[in-house]
Amino acid sequence: MPRIVRFHQTGGPEVLKLEEVAVAPPGPGEVRIAVKAIGLNRAEAMFRSGMYLEQPSFPSRIGYECSGTVEAVGDGVTEFAVGDKVSTIPAFSIGKNGVYGEVATVPAAAVARYPASLSWEEGTSIWMQYLTVYGAVIDIAKLAKGDTLLIPAASSSVGIAAIQIANLIGATPVALTRTSGKREELLKHGAKHVIATEEQDLVAEVMKLTDQKGARVVFDPVGGPTVAKLTAAMAAGGILFQYGALSTEPTPLPLMDVLGKTLTIRGYLLFEFTTHPEKLKPAKEFVVKGLESGALKPLVAKTFPLDQIVESHRYLESNQQIGKVVVTV
Description:
The protein has eleven helices and 15 strands. It is of the alpha/beta class. The chain folds into two domains: 3-126 and 298-328, Medium-chain alcohol dehydrogenases, catalytic domain (Quinone Oxidoreductase, Chain A, domain 1, Alpha-Beta Complex), CATH 3.90.180.10; 128-271, Alpha-Beta Complex (Quinone Oxidoreductase, Chain A, domain 1). Helix 3 (127-140) crosses helix 4 and helix 3 packs across helix 10. The longest helix is centred in the C-terminal third of the chain and has 17 residues, at 277-293. It is globular. The chain starts with a strand and ends with a strand.
């Protein structure tokens, strides 16, 4: 029987267990993948902890992203064949279809091919990060050449993806990080400017960089008190995407900035995008074109073997990484 990562209670990384589990054949419209690599995401740590939008039903599977080869297809699946090299798009239940393990079964609509030049580790580091950015920043905000994009938690895989996409279209990516320890690495990976928010005046620095205009788009996974500084650093008519809640502190509504500058603060979920085929198709084309040209390049921070799934989650939550944490199978 294949080894699958499951957990039987919420908690820290130690609740993750690697267990032998019987796996049913793929049902209608499903694809079973022989997993080669697994990309880790903050959403999975939150799900494991019982702090995610979806609540686990025990024993629960876990995981959104994997790469591998098609092992079997269910009735009605015609776009994939056994042996195809594929990866998964987060567009399914993380508990029911979780991909951590030696095999994963997911809806065919959540499976995609990617350029053959990419490794397994890079292949599992594509869709969550690039589609999360595309759906908000490109599809909704229409980020364009000359715009300034503020990127809190810029060293995350999604943060690096936001830097790359901003550069691709000619916008200015401004990376926000708590201390200057990651400054040189963020500049190396494409940030035009880096602001260490615990060491520098965030608002003053942004205004200086934008000739006192402020940033039109903010892409924030953190929330908490810093939102007030972000809105103060925004341009009139700007939009702030709140796509995560990493801060455990309350998030204020900076009412005077919102009113005075007619700002939009918008909650954003990747799934409002990945579950709509008409939106997903152009996004996939954008990402694949970027990957093929080299303008988009998944950055793998560190890899762990499947046997070290607990250690991989500890590292994920340590905030040491720049880029994607990957588990190899």
